[in-house]
Amino acid sequence: MKSSKVRVLASVLVILALLVSGCTTAGTTTTGATTGGTTTGSTTTTAPTQTGPAPYDLPFVDEPITLSLFVSLDGKAAMSLTSLEENLTMQHYEEISGINIEWYHPSSATTTAEALNVMIASGDVTDMIAGIMSASDSIDTLIENGIIMRLNEAIDEHGYYLNQAFTEYPEFYAQVLSYEGNIGLYPSARLDEITRYFESFIVRKDWLDELGLEKPDSVEDWYTVLKAFKTQDPNKNGKNDELPFVHNTNEELGVPRLSSLWGFNATFFKWNATTVLDGKVVFATDAADFVDYVTTMNKWYAEGLLDPEYVSTDATGWREKVLSDQGGMFYGKMNGGIGTLMGSYDFSKNANFSLEPVAYATTKDGKSYDVYSQDIFDRGGTAISANCENVEAAIKWNDYMYSKEGAIMASFGIEGTTFEYDDKGVPHYTELITKNPDGLSLVNAIAKYAIGGMGPRMLNDQYYWSAVMATEQQRMVYPTVSVSSTERKMPNNLLYSQEDFTELNRLMTDIGTYYKEGLHAFIMGTRPLSEMDAFKANLDKMGLKDAIAIMQDAYDRYISNIN
């Protein structure tokens, strides 16, 4: 294997100095219309080719070449590596692809976004850039300024496996397109449906069993369960210390998510407290059941069913309340919630401790609604710089990780060393990973030897997803929540012009602060419910209708791109 030269970017100044040696002179890229594109005004949207590019073989090049790649060194990998050059799978990929990677990792002393923006400002960029969505400028601006390539045509010509994914998942294609119809990165994705569901409401199943209760399926059921948790001492310590529903301020994992019991979203994080109702983007306060939701939360808070400290309880406090046998229900993630908590609990206190997912509640129309699952495009991926001299090789280097073999290689590593196939063709990690001789945890061992769960991997696939679930309870999340309708979920990847994006951020910054403060004040009783109309009126005065109009236009464009 050809030795690669590693550059660890120790500071902002060092970034500028080092990147000069690894890049060619900055160039420009053409962004005009292409055959097969559809043009509306100044926007060109190029659909995937019908015939598609030809398949290719390994290695990707006739003679070995070197490409430089800017990518953050994931914290899990940094536990045992100083660079991905030391990663066994990346060394193997070098050998079979014929492409040597010159790695550029930002220093831990600076954020990826900071280092990325400094590199872009210098004009001297690596051939490939992971994490490009962290840049201050939009994809369209970066293409227009000659920093990165528009990849539509190159993917049509060389991206055999990504083209297949675009054809099979048209919504994925729509999510990747920029406002101007550009594809500015090789996108990382969650093609397998199971990988898009990793959050849910979670309950102390042993408490339900202790009290002879079933998992709740309606607002009324929820009240029955929470009231029993509050009054019937399910932790059996003889004290009235249970907190029926606990909240984590990180990502608003808690009380705002309870709005889904009424079939809409009140969570401002990520979705701007919006829901799609019959094709219209609706802010939470305009949802038909918003007042019913707030009134019910106010009642539950007054009766002690919601943690009285919920607005100030961070991830550490929330975790402690569950592990100390106080918290009974919460909203969380299958790994950071179920997996981490069950792995940390002291079972000598209670051998029956168990956390299980709870389905989204059945609403008045007889349906349940999932408004929180993830899009296919997870906003990660790798751009190719406009001055890269080996575009075809760079495309294929990323594209191969969309093939079955490439995806398994990225997540599982090398057959016979880090994984083996079972008799059904399913990969499983070897004991080098599952019982690591250096004492590394499962995910840290994966990060040392493969790139599962971190960049520059492309696919979050079902095999990796299943392999990292340590408990049966984690595996229950997908079948529990995926049965709910996603028709009301606001997409995460809407397209905005730079002007609209700036205006939307300006409006929603103040609106979000006012909305969240008001929502919690109504719930906690520090603001009377009689002021609800005034609250809504003030939101309108702050420009809420203008913000919704911008989001509606973006949503309509998204649907049009799918169709």
**N-to-C terminal Cα separation, in Å?**
46 Å
Mean pLDDT: 91
- The count of strands amounts to 16
Number of helices: 22
- Computed CA radius of gyration, to the nearest angstrom: 25 Å
Describe the structure.
- By secondary structure, the protein is an alpha/beta fold.
- The protein contains 22 helices and 16 strands.
- It has helices at residues 12-22, 88-97, 112-122, 139-144, 152-158, 160-168, 170-176, 205-211, 219-231, 290-302, 315-323, 334-344, 391-399, 404-412, 431-434, 442-449, 462-467, 472-475, 477-481, 498-524, 532-541, 544-562, and strands at residues 7-9, 37-40, 43-46, 65-70, 99-106, 128-130, 186-189, 199-204, 243-245, 274-277, 280-283, 327-333, 355-358, 377-384, 419-421, 427-429.
- A six-stranded mixed sheet has the order 1-5-4-6-14-7, with helices on both faces.
- Helix 6 (160-168) packs across helix 7 and helix 10 (290-302) crosses helix 20.
- It is globular, with a radius of gyration of 25 Å.
- The two termini are 46 Å apart.
- The model is unreliable at 1-46 (pLDDT under 50).
How is this structure best summarized?
The chain has 22 helices and 16 strands. The protein is an alpha/beta fold. The longest helix is centred in the last third of the chain and has 27 residues, at 498-524.
